[in-house]
Specification:
It comes from Pseudomonas endophytica. Keywords: Chromophore, Kinase, Phosphoprotein, Photoreceptor protein, Receptor, Sensory transduction, Transferase. The strands form 8 sheets. A 7-stranded antiparallel beta sheet has the order 1-11-3-2-6-5-4. Helix content is 41%, strand content 23%. Among the domains are: 123 residues, PAS domain (Beta-Lactamase); 81 residues, Orthogonal Bundle (Helix Hairpins), CATH 1.10.287; 150 residues, Histidine kinase-like ATPase, C-terminal domain (Heat Shock Protein 90, 2-Layer Sandwich), CATH 3.30.565.10. It is built from 21 helices and 31 strands.
Length: 751
Amino acid sequence: MDTQSPLSLQKAIDNCAREPIRTPGSIQPQGFLLVVEETTMSILQASANVVDWIGIDAQSLIGSSFDALIKHGSEFVEQLSELDEDQLQAFHVGDATVLKGNNVGMSVAIMLHRNDGVLIAEFEPASDATVAHGRLYPMIRSFVSQMREDESIDQLCQRAVGFIKRITGYGRVNAYRFDDSGNGLVNAELADEGFDRYLGLCFPASDIPQQARDLYCANRIRIISDVNYVPSSLVPAENPKTGLPLDLSYATLRSVSPVHLHYMRNMGTGASMSVSIVINGKLWGLISCHNVLPRAVSFQSRTACELLGRVLSLQLETKVAHSRSQKMLILRKQIVQMLAAMADHDSVFKGIQSVKDIFLDFVGASGAAVVSDTECDLYGLTPNENQVRALTDWLEQREGSLVFSSDNVSRDIPHLPGLAKSVGGVLAVSISQLHSSYIVWFKPEQVHIMNWAGKPNKVVSDEGKLSPRQSFAMWQETVEGFSTRWDDSEIEGVSELRQAVLGIVLRKAEELAQMASELKQSNKELEAFSYSVSHDLRAPLRHIAGYAELLGDMEVDNLTERGQRFLDTIGESAKFAGTLVDNLLSFSQMGRSAMRLSEVNLSAMIESIKREMKPEYENRAIEWKVSELPVIIADPAFLHLALRNLVSNAIKYTRNEPVAVIQIEAVSTTDHVTVSIKDNGVGFDMKYADKLFGVFQRLHRMDEFEGTGIGLANVRRIVERHGGTVQAQGRLKEGATFSFSLPKRHLSPVS
């Protein structure tokens, strides 16, 4: 017998997992079994060892009447009607006397249950029920009455172990609970002198295949009276009603796997019994009883143990639920504190920054990160920003739950080895339905020692079958790469936090949408108003300017120098007001006029603008640096106005330079074209950059540089109507660069 290749080992494990433990085709011989067709009360199957009990061979019983064999058999069956129809557990209906050949009859206890479409009757030697009841009932009542709210789970299990040992008389009784991986940690033990001790040791999950765990949930008690028993087969082998092996899942006498018997012998166990601890329908743990010599346990004692196991399960379920509720109360309080901070700051990021201690403590993490496309805030002990963003990129691509948890990053995210060098565990949640935004918590690796009950490696025999380990002595393993596990309540709390954050974001989005709608309507009304006012003011302002000029010409000899100065001021102010009104009218028309797209040769347009504006700079020294510019798709009139404004500003704000340098260039990418106009003029302070493109925003006094403060607002509106963006860069007395990016377009046939 030696360790085999991984492939042969996996094959042996798979074969073991497929073993028909529910339909073994045989029973343990400490009793016998009959299968009955309930409507006719005729016997369909019998265990081969029935001849040892009543002197009649199994084949001779097939087809005979159950009532003829068991006096008042039908009356026993009627007792099952008192139970729920879906009751599958074996039920003691009473004791009966059966003849053994011509000898005096023997008293047997009868247990009945329905399964697989038939009635299954099991028979064991009867015991004194009165004495048993008088001894067992007070013990169960005492166990229940001693329960306390402050009793820990391990203390409760230890008390249960003591009661079951007293009831059954086994030499060693253990309780163990399963972890998330299915490993069983012994958390309570009581053993006689000479028995090996397993308290604090761990039994590997592979000791109990999944199908066995399912069976432990279905039938909560299992007994093996003699590990060296010879199985008694069923006659015939198949259930006549189904043509398949009989399902013995709920039979007390069901024969068990030969691999498990081998396992028991290796442990030095001659008899065993197990009681399941089931919480919320899942196998939480087991109480396991062992004896060196064969040991039979009466059905009364087994029933008492099963009842105690169910009471223990309910009590543990209550304690687990209470602990979880207390944990959730704390988590929800912290959620409220974080949400309040987010609401106060009107930002998820700023809100978390203000309560970072609560944020980290929320799930007991050592570090955390809040990540969006533009921000990455790190708290505590975390990987660097590049590793965090690599993690969120991976989270964005994966499918499945929006909450991801791992207590072993190297195992679960192997393609990010750098991450595993920094942390052991990760808990992450998406906080946006549209964007890549995540909250991530980190835990460090916790290297620890695992104490196993024997080296957990599996071995395959020469016949290719799984062979149980030979030794159960403590074997230590150093476990690396793991963090402490993320608790289920913490994962649930993170899910609730996500829903709450999404609720805040959604409500904020709705408020912004409402504001945007109202603002859009206001803008339309304002555009209509400004168009109407500016249109109506044009004529009066022109009249004022015109009549002021005429009055000056006609009364030139009659006006004093002071009067002429006043008249000139009136004329200049009227002309400025007229220009302002013209610009306002142009600005309002930007949002009302339809766009007409066509090809625009930017080089030709710049040359045209230079010719138009030559009177403004013909007596100045200007060095033009115009790169080769592309042909794009845009509205020619609108784009001409935008470029004219930018070129005009470059000429105006370089007037104090001995030699003005104006550089115009374009950069083309796959999707956009960016045009920039750079000058060496007065520049501006970047802290005012956000104001530049607003209406009536000026950074210089009127006596320094003329202007209405509408030109750049027009540029932004034109560019944004094309689907683009505007930017400005500058430094005081070192010049400025204004640029805009337009998406590349194609002319449609309609255009």
